[in-house]
Amino acid sequence: MSESDLAEMRTQADRLGFDLPESILEEILETATAGEEHAAASVRTSEGAGHRSEDEENALLAVFDEPRVRTDSGPLFGKTLAVKDNIAVSDLEMTCGSAAYSVVPSFTAPAVDRLLEAGAGLVGKANMEPFAMGPTGEFSDFGHVTNPIDPDIVAGGSSSGSAAAVAAGTVDVALGSDTGGSIRIPSACCGIVGVKPSHRLVPRNGFVDFAPSLDTIGPMTRDVSTAASALAAMAGRDPLDPTSADRSVALETLEDLDDVDGLTVGIPDTPFERASDEVADAVRTVTDRLSTLGIETESVELDLGDTEAAYLNIGAAEFSWLVSGNGVTRGQGTGYDETLRQAFESAREAGLGEHVARRILPPAFLDMTSGGASYAAAREEGLAFSARLETAFEAVDALVTPTLRVRPPAVETVTTRADLLPILGNTAPFNIAGTPAVTVPVTSVDGLPVSAQAVAPQFEDARALRVARALERVAD
């Protein structure tokens, strides 16, 4: 026990309002030090299995020589799986797309574990933007990810490797994470299906958070049916994630997905008005065909407000809190793992990099200097939007919007905060609301994919998938 440690304990006690004698502080410090020693002893430092992938798109990082299959049956048997590199897989190095972060987990996240139980064969880990920050796929410390459709167009992010691996046919299913569009944006750029589940539907234990109040884990596939099977396998409560919901997604067959007769789908005004004319017109052309499947469409009001700025402020503030706690979610967080915490601490000491700093520091600085007022204002903006969304759902069963407001952008063109808004402006609002959203490629403009997004009320993920399947059926 050092004098400096005792002085720090006194400072903490004074800050929290505890007026304690020196003897009690020494006793408390001994307890704290013993816990620190136990934590250090539990950290795993072994080398991971697998090797660096050499795929053409740079979509994958650490991969096994052969897919690891746990069972020879199940709805995903015969399907290959890649996992975004911020989700734990036992014995495979996890980097979060950052050269500063490296850990070999001793356990597999339940979201992955459940897919293996459903028959999927695990190929390895997918490349990503550092700490899931960035909508283009250009900034991974392990090299940018190439879009299989056109190398001059961004692959999207932050689940860039997951999208590219699926689009290239390297794997059948990939897991991504979505904080403001990080599943749906790369899926739209690469012309595949991407599912952002309801917040809390899929457990996040074993996942490195970006913003816990917004984060979700979801599947990315080439068709809605496979996505539905994957989400059904992943959903449900996990005891090590107290935030996870005791919910399921009951979609057993393709016939279940095709059961849309009588649904009413709203076409919201603002998400189309803020999109480019070519994208808005292309998506409207496809939604007009939904009536051939027995779906009624009607225009609805949905003011997005300033949800883009609200998302950026919420995400930056929550990540800055995670950084200060070395990746530990305070309050009602997911299961704690000392190995992941220590890896985050090491990354913090090494430096998280300029890309992360540029995304996080401006809103985090505003949050700090305003005494939390900017975060509170962003939350108020989000609550107001959620109320407007609930009103819209009183009139319709689901919504369809363009996923991106523009065509997938060219590489090296998204350089300012203003450049982000056309990419995430239609996706981030539904992270704030916690509702399910599924993106589906529906047509193309000048050879580039244009996608539509099906949105349903929270925990009505099956309904969102049904509408997504309907869009898939009437797509060009």
Automatic annotation (TrEMBL):
InterPro entries: Amidase (IPR000120), Amidase_CS (IPR020556), Amidase_dom (IPR023631), AS_sf (IPR036928). Keywords: Transferase. Residues 35-55 are annotated as: Disordered. The keyword Transferase applies. GO terms for molecular function: transferase activity. Residues 70-464 form the Amidase domain. Pfam families: Amidase. This is Aspartyl-tRNA(Asn)/glutamyl-tRNA(Gln) amidotransferase subunit A. The lineage of its organism: Archaea, Methanobacteriati, Methanobacteriota, Stenosarchaea group, Halobacteria.
